[in-house]
Amino acid sequence: MEALGLDWLLAPLHQLVSWGAAGAMVFGGVVPYIPQYRDIRRTQNADGFSTYVCLVLLVANILRILFWFGRHFESPLLWQSIIMILTMLLMLRLCTEVHVNSELNLKRRSFAASDSKDEEIRVPLRRSYLDFDPQHFWCWSSFSDYVQCVLAFSGVAAYITYLCIDSVLFVETLGFLAMFTEAMLGVPQLYRNHRHRSTEGMSIKMVLMWASGDTFKTAYFLLNHVPLQFSICGLLQMLVDLAILMQAYTYARCSPKPAPHPAHPSSAKAL
User: What is the largest CA-CA distance in the chain?
Assistant: First the structure.
C-alpha cells in the first residue's frame, strides 16, 4: 500500500520534471541572447557581437530539422531548432539596422566636416548576397538579403535530403554536420576576441548562459539516450564556452588602465 501511495505521488512529480526539462530545452537556448539583444538596442552598437554566430546557428538548426526527417528524435529538440531560427533572424535584423544606421551617420559626419559645399552626400554602397563577393559574405546591407540566403540554403539542403533520405550514411552524416556546426557556435566570437585582443562589447552574461545552457543540454542528451552526435558535440561546445570565458578573464587582467586626462591638453600637433 505504501508503494502504491508513493507511486501516486511520484508519478505527477516525474511528469512535471519532464515537462520542465522539455520547456528548458525548447526555450533555454534563446535566453543567452536576450541580454545581448538589449545591449545592442540600448547602445546602438553591434560591433561586440559577431553576426557569424547567427550564421552558425541558422545552418546548424536547419540541418537538425532535416535530420529529424531521417531519424526522429525527441520533439523538444525539434521545437528548439524552430525557436532558435526565429531568434537568430531577430538578432540579424537588429544588427543590420544598427550597422546601416552607423554607416549613414558616419557619412553624414564626413559630409558635415567637409570644406566643399558642392560635395554630394555619398550613400553607402549597398551589399547584396547576389553579388557573390566572398569579401562581403554575411555583411550585407539589408535584412531581406539574409532572409533570401537562408531560404536558398534551406531549399537546396531540403532537396538534397529528399533525394538521399533513404541512405543511412547520409542521414547520420547530416546529423553529425548539424551538431558539429552547432558545436562551433562560439568559434566566431572566440576568433573575434583573439583578433582584437579584447572582449569589449561582448555580453559576459550571454557567454555564462551559453556555458550553463550547454552543460544542461549535454546532461539532457546523456540522460535521454539521444543520437550520439548530440552528446559528443555538446561536450565540444562546452569546451569552446570555457575558452571564451578564459579570454574574458585574461584580457580583462591584461588591459591597460586608462590614463588620466591632463588639466591642459596638448596641442593637436603634439598629439
Answer: 94
